[in-house]
Amino acid sequence: MSETRVHGPDVKTAHQDLHSEQGALRGEHPGRSRNPVIKVADLAWLEFEKPDLDRAEIFARDFGFQVAARTESELWLRGTFAGTPCMVIRRGRTSRFIGPAFRAAERADLDRLARATGSDVRDADVPGGGKAVGLLDPSGFPVRVVHCGEQLPALPEQRPLLLNFGTDHRRTNATQRPPREPSRIQRLGHVVLETRVFSRALDWYLDTLGMIVSDFQFLDGQRERGPVMAFIRCDLGSVPADHHTLAMHLGPGTGYVHSAYQVTDLDSIAAGGEYLKERGYQRSWGIGRHVQGSQLFDYWRDPDRFMLEHFADGDLFSCDVEPGWAPLSATGLAQWGPPATRDFLGAGPSPQRVRDVVQALRGDNEMDPARLLGLLKAAKS
Predict the structure, then answer these.
(1) If phi over 0 gives left and psi between -120 and 50 gives alpha, with beta otherwise, what is residue 129?
(2) What gap in Å lies between CA 304 and CA 50, rounded to an integer?
(3) Domain range annotation of the chain
(4) Considering the domain 42-150+183-380 in this protein, what is its CATH number?
(5) What pLDDT digit, counting tens, does each position of 261-313 carry?
């Protein structure tokens, strides 16, 4: 790790001002582990339970997934890129998020991880077969690390539109008529989780899975207490990786916030959004462009109230880009677009949210009145 210095008007910080106005101050979290057990290569898929697989499949196709496999008890969804499925939905009594599965770079990583954690390497119940190690993160989420046998083949793509820019005329004697159809999902990009034990969970993902932080966010007036949100990417060395594969933030609850799926371009996001709107689905927030990660985004709710994001044109960082630091605020979530909605921010009152707050303030975790007030202030700022 290179030495970090207090940011000044003519001083280049360790992250070289690439993605945040601020770098780390001396003594702050370095955003990576000195000696991780393994380094995962990507997010493989997400696991859910839902009572109605037929309804889940209808939304999945409308949102832009393809069906990789379907049985009476399981629905495996995929994108157009070759690789693993994006999501598995298993039949259950209630709708709930189970946890993420990460992809090991090599089969030997599973053995190394199993030895270090006292776990077993078992068969992975994924189309095409494979092996997996099951873990539990400090928040209580089941986390699987998998190495799959067969890769799903690529499917036909939704081609990006050819655009004219100023005097650069690439399209002549031809019109633009993007069809109003489902956005064609290419791949799973990231998942965002809420946790009451942010610091412990952060260190677990860095130490166990070898992930590294792209950006930290802190509460106004509470930077000395450490960050409350982290955008975390896979460490692929000199190969650029998504700005974040996992994002976590401190909160009164423990659970899924949203997951994001890459599509071709802005027209795919917009036309696919019109398609979803015509079919009565609820847009949570969008369309806009994020600050951390720079993605073009559009957020939707599925029939079970889970939030899913279409995104395109995200940042890619190699391992030598160090964490940026920025205050957490609602207005700081986007470079342009409509204001973040209460639905997206989870700011709407509900009996479950009240129970979460009461349990968090009574429990042994990182939530306290000052943190809670800081989070409420950030949601309104």
Answers:
(1) left
(2) 8
(3) 42-150+183-380
(4) 3.10.180.10
(5) 999 999 999 999 999 999 999 999 999 999 999 999 999 999 999 999 999 99
Q: Degrees (nearest 5) of the Cα angle 351, 357, 361?
A: 150
**Do residues 63 and 300 make contact, with C-beta atoms less than 8 angstroms apart?**
yes
**Per-residue DSSP letter, 379:** H
Cβ atoms within 10 Å, residue 359: 15
For residues 43 and 100, is the Cβ–Cβ distance under 8 A? yes
State phi, psi for 141 to the nearest 5 degrees.
-80, 130
Q: Which pairing describes strands 130-136 and 74-78: parallel, antiparallel, or unpaired?
A: unpaired
Say how many C-beta atoms besides its own lie within 10 A of residue 254's C-beta: 18
How far is residue 332's CA from residue 378's CA, in Å, rounded to a whole number? Answer: 10
H or E, element range at 114: helix 107-117
> Which 3 state secondary structure label does DSSP give 344?
helix
352: tokens are 């479950």
pLDDT digits (tens, 9 = 90+) for 203-234: 999 999 999 999 999 999 999 999 999 999 99
Tokens representing 376?
Answer: 């409420």
Q: Give whole-number Cα distances, 25 to 5, 54, 170, 216, in Å.
A: 6, 51, 47, 12
How many helices (H) and strands (E) the chain has is answered by 7, 20
- pLDDT tens digits, residue range 154-191? 999 999 999 999 999 999 999 999 999 999 999 999 99
Best CA proximity match to 57, nearest among 27, 83, 88: 88
Neighbours of 185 (CB within 10 A): 29
Q: How many residues does the chain have?
A: 381
* HSE (side-chain half, CA atoms, 13 Å) at 260: 24
- What is the C-alpha separation between 351 and 266, in angstroms, rounded? 37
- Which secondary structure element, helix H or strand E, spans residue 202, and what is its range? helix 198-209
Query: Can you read off the two tokens belonging to residue 78?
Result: 């995929």
Q: Are 22 and 13 in contact (CB under 8 A)?
A: yes
Alpha-carbon gap, residue 109 to 125, rounded angstroms: 19
Q: Please identify which residue in the block is written with the tokens 């990507």.
A: 42
Note the Cα 269 to chain centre separation in Å: 17
